[in-house]
Amino acid sequence: MAATVAYDEVEIGTELPPRSFPVQRSTLVQYAGASGDFNPIHWNERFATEVGLPNVIAHGMFTMASAIRVVTDWAGDPGAVTEYGVRFTRPVPVPNDDEGALIEVTAKVAQKLDDRKVRVDLLVMSSGQKVLGMSRAVVQLV
């Protein structure tokens, strides 16, 4: 399956539909089971605070995976993403309450490249703070 977005119809500055991703402690347990990452900073509040974290934190790869969903949903095919990279700038603390945390993602086309590809820059925030820096994806369009 190929991307459903046409290269010729995309302009620099095109904004992708924003998304918000709720994260609760149960989400972290499910992700730990799927990924095999059972580091106690992701589930044990006492351990997390003893090592200097503000609380249990979301897995960095979970945050990264949540963010790229904005791009894959827009493109219509996860396989259309040919490159993706981020810098982890801040953890996403996940309180043990009914609300948890929220990862908020906006993105826009920053550059049109050769071979019908575009670079998409993402802004990934939680609690008003940027949690991923240099978050960029290259997407193959039709």
UniProtKB/TrEMBL annotation:
Protein family: Belongs to the enoyl-CoA hydratase/isomerase family.
GO cellular component terms, alphabetically, are:
fatty acid synthase complex
Q: Which organism is it from?
A: Wenjunlia tyrosinilytica
One BP annotation, GO = fatty acid biosynthetic process
Q: Where is the signal peptide?
A: none
Its taxonomic path starts at: Bacteria, Bacillati, Actinomycetota, Actinomycetes, Kitasatosporales
Sequence ranges assigned to domain MaoC-like in this UniProt record: 17-118
Q: Which SUPFAM superfamilies match?
A: Thioesterase/thiol ester dehydrase-isomerase
**Entry protein name:** MaoC family dehydratase
In terms of InterPro entries, this protein maps to: Fatty_acid_synthase, HotDog_dom_sf, MaoC-like_dom
- Drop me one GO molecular function for this one: fatty acid synthase activity
Checking Pfam families in the record gives: MaoC_dehydratas (PF01575)
